[in-house]
Amino acid sequence: MKQATFDAAVAPGADPVSALSALDRAVRVAARTLARAGLAHAYGHCSARLDADRFVVCAARPMGLLGVGETGTVVPIDGPLPDGVLGEVRLHQHIYRSRPEIGAVARTMPPKTMSLSTLRRTPRALHGPGTYFAPGVPLWDDPQLIRSDEQAAAVIDTMGTNAAVVMRGNGAVVAADTLEAMVALTWYLEDAARVDLDVLALEATLPAAVLSGDECQARATRSGRIIERMWEYLSAGDPELPAAVASQPGS
């Protein structure tokens, strides 16, 4: 899937300064979108790949409070974190380093996902959104903060090639090829956890109908602008969407 909203700004041959500015803005939009959706609070961060060697991460502040034009930080995929960058951004580094197809990463605190994880469970594929994580979301069974390269590498090794990894009592990491897909998949993860928690209350008498591998493969589609429509729904009204910026006086 190509980025529907920001692809042109970071196309090969684009002016490097303009490309960085556009990607930085895109990361802010994604960060605020995650916060508005209730998927992050005071804690969390998101990023997007700039090129083979670098990515841009949002400022180290609550994502919902990021201001228009508030710049993030360019971070090397290999090497120490720049000053002022949160320690758990190491998770982003390890994903970009090991998975060249990944273009965006978010570390968030989805509340239903968090609750389910304290049971040492991750969302099952019970409805459409859950199918995007088949054959199942891996669990990092340790509630401690990730403050070292060794911890970050272990979490991402647990994640493997899945779109997400859930950390017991400590939120989740979601990765995708584009910012739009990363935001949508983070919402899907939380909706899958919501459904799973609802079903658990009844499952002693009414066993859940978990989708099979073949059912998941058939359902986890991107056709019909599924990702784009979720992005449009979640990001609507952000002051730095391209349409909003173009309509501002003097733009």
TrEMBL record:
<dbReference type="InterPro" id="IPR050197">
    <property type="entry name" value="Aldolase_class_II_sugar_metab"/>
</dbReference>
<dbReference type="InterPro" id="IPR001303">
    <property type="entry name" value="Aldolase_II/adducin_N"/>
</dbReference>
<feature type="domain" description="Class II aldolase/adducin N-terminal">
    <location>
        <begin position="25"/>
        <end position="197"/>
    </location>
</feature>
<dbReference type="InterPro" id="IPR036409">
    <property type="entry name" value="Aldolase_II/adducin_N_sf"/>
</dbReference>
<protein>
    <submittedName>
        <fullName>Aldolase</fullName>
    </submittedName>
</protein>
<keyword id="KW-0479">Metal-binding</keyword>
<keyword id="KW-0456">Lyase</keyword>
<dbReference type="Pfam" id="PF00596">
    <property type="entry name" value="Aldolase_II"/>
</dbReference>
